[in-house]
Design a protein that fits this description.
This protein is of the alpha+beta class and 165 residues long. It contains 4 helices and 8 strands; from the N terminus they run E-E-H-H-E-E-E-H-E-H-E-E.
Length: 165
């Protein structure tokens, strides 16, 4: 598994080192826990799948995704999954938000997919929309809830993605 250090992030009176490591199937439980904690704290529709189903799903999709975990002091604090040119998941543990972890993962995603990226974000998740727009993503279409949660969402693209305007 690869290791990427992106420096230190300020946290109150101390500096902490955050590492981003490539993840695999053996990390499925860790990835699922970061996802569950982050999703529960985000302005998103309530999760419709029980935690054990999320853990099983995560384990089943990891072989077909490029996955990374961000760690601080050996504690997992962020997860990113790429599938082709889609950014499937980017979730930062609520205790680590606002400290640059998402930006570091986004920079990694752009390096990994220099030809462009696309993603979906729920319309109600305004903080995520602001984050993606800050990083150069533009909305290209909206749905009225054509997803399993039944919640309106927005498709965003970055770079030379085929769906970009």
């Amino acid at each position: 598994m690869g290791l990427t250090r992106f420096g230190t992030l300020a946290d109150a009176d101390s500096l902490r080192s955050v590492e981003i490591r490539r993840a695999g199937v053996d990390d499925a439980a860790t990835i699922a826990e970061v996802y569950l904690a982050s999703r529960d704290a985000a302005p998103m529709p309530a999760g419709i799948h029980p935690p054990d189903d999320v853990r099983d799903y995560t384990r089943s999709v990891l072989p077909e995704r490029d996955a990374w975990l961000a760690y601080e002091d050996d504690q997992p604090i962020g997860v990113m999954l790429l599938q082709g040119d889609d950014l499937n998941w980017m979730f930062i543990h609520p205790d680590a938000q606002g400290r640059g972890v998402g930006t570091a993962l986004m920079e990694l995603a752009k390096r990994e997919r220099p030809g462009g990226l696309a993603l979906w974000v729920f319309e109600m998740n305004v903080p995520a929309q602001r984050f993606y727009e800050k990083h150069g993503f533009v909305p290209v279409r909206r749905t009225d809830g054509d997803n399993e949660e039944g919640a309106p969402d927005i498709r965003y693209t970055w770079g030379d993605h085929p769906e970009a305007p």
